[in-house]
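Q: Structure tokens for this one, please.
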Amino acid sequence: MVLFENVRFLDTTLRDGEQTPGVALNTEGKLAIARKLDELGISIIEAGSAITSEGERNAMKAVAAEGLDAEICSYCRIMQQDVDYALECDVDSIHLVAPVSDLHINVKLKKSREDVIDMAVNTTEYAKEHGLIVEISGEDASRADFEFLKKFYQKGIEAGADRACYCDTVGLLVPEKTTEIFGELADFCEVPVSIHCHDDFGMSVANTVAALNAGAKEAHCTINGIGERAGNTALEEVVMILEWLYKYDTGIKKEELYRTSRLVSRLTGIPVAINKSLVGGNAFTHEAGIHVHGLLADTSTYEPLKPEIVGRERKIVLGKHAGKSSVTLALKELGLDVDKPQLDEILLRVKELGDHGKRVTDSDLQTIAETVLDTYTEARVNLEEYNIVSGSRVMPTASVRLTVDGKEVIEADVGDGPVDAVVKGISKAVAGIADIQLEEYHVDSITGGTDALVEVRVKLSRDGKMATSRGARTDIIMASVEAVINGINQLIKENKG
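A: Here is the predicted structure, written as tokens:
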């Protein structure tokens, strides 16, 4: 047997995926996703369940009228009424689903096995008489009696069914059992067999691949694996497993997978887990360190495939594991050149942020680097330490210890707040060499959160001369101190005394 021969995909994002709690797509949303699925190269789009509502039917009609290359399908129960509603939507095919486990037959349908077969046969014949392609599907097949299941498929195929689908409705299959089942079904059924899995035990992708490997010709999937409970088989994962690991050409436009994932996430409101394979936020993101050192030499060291293949870009973030090479690379990408002392200081600040559990973004790094580059290496004024006393019943008081032209100076002052107090203390400490006035003070949070990197920008004046400087730290007081001292050094750098 030739493995993975003529594999097709039925995408059920618009039906099973939309059954995710809280998801309700309007007509425009269904159309947008259907167009993208068609662009991907999906063979069959299950556009919804025509029996659901008038609004659902209107949306399905719009998808069917779009003139897509994909076959447009409606979910149907084994009832003539469902087929009539599907015909009203002008679909090409129906996914005709019948309960096949005794649990579902007896408890949900309250019928006998013979009743189920009769209903399935009659509905199949009716659909075929009206020109529909029929995929007959066994719901809860993984808990059904296998001999009865084969009889169900046989009778459906004799009635005209074009495809037969096996549904692992509550995700109970394992790959070994799946291989055994589909090896037999592929030989038994005279039509292509398909696999429909749910991810209750995290096995849907593995089971789907095992089924295709054993002779199934069609896989039911959803984008991002969305669906009821733990979801359905993720289309992007099955596609890339077949393409990249088994070297089988699926015909799917791999470079559009990520954009499709983002579209579905946005329109359904379901975020993609950050650590999800291929399309998750971290899938091609590396924190600088030993991994980035390897990536710089050869990207394949810590990536199984190039991100561009699935429409992604590689991202490198900095944190406590950052090294000089990765920081240097990131700075070059920002167009910033630094010398060794400046690089050492930037790296120190990056690691400080990393120790607080923060990732250093491009904007963080740019602010840090520009702050360090603004600092004069031969500064006349340097901070040694400061202390703040503040509280609801205490006047904010700051003491500062500076070196001014190599001499230690200690001063203290009070203010309207801790920042005001420390700035006044610094001004007193440098009064011997310059009268400095704070003209403007501005704070920006570079990233969100209470431990965000903050940028403080100040405008200082001295004898009519103005200087603007900045400071960037997670501590707003330290950022303010840094900004003020940088500004002071700019104003006094040319005149000693």
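A few notes: The chain has a mean pLDDT of 89. The longest strand covers residues 381-391.
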